Amino acid sequence: MLRYFLIFFLLILTSNSIAEIKNRIIQNLKNTNNLDFKFEQNINGKIEHGNCTIEYPKKIFCEYARSNNKILVSNGKSLVIKTRSSYYRYPLEKTPLNLILDKTYLISKIFELEERIVNENLINFTIQEKDNEINIFFDSQSYDLIGWQNTDIYQNFNITFLSSIRKNRILSKKLFEIPSQN
Question: What tens digit of pLDDT does each residue of 6-15 get?
């Protein structure tokens, strides 16, 4: 009888700690209006670095280091990738970033999904939405978003890691304006 009680007690402790992790991640997301960070992005083995700013909902501005003045911008409706020699514009809703940049959507998914602890440092949630599989990663200490993994609109495997994260800074609204094509 004592053995069954101990097993039951351990199950309750484990489920409470799992629920606590989810609650902390959700609360941290709710308290985050924007964040800026350094990133490392690996797309099919090609690694790029830069700085990004996200403002919820669905806005992002990224400058890539040493890359033809490459920027990525979303105003919440469109996503533009611009370099010196190219300009691509997509409806944001057709990209995985539409889901990644939607804090309300992420919170609802985290609430219903089961998390996976990776190396005791990362908390992973796998989101299946239409044809998209997106892995979202959070730091197990700060509960901050620290990366994602997905397949982009060209079917390229994309891994993005975030570092030097700062939250809730004062941002210029012009930051998320879609650049002209010229």
Answer: 344 333 334 4
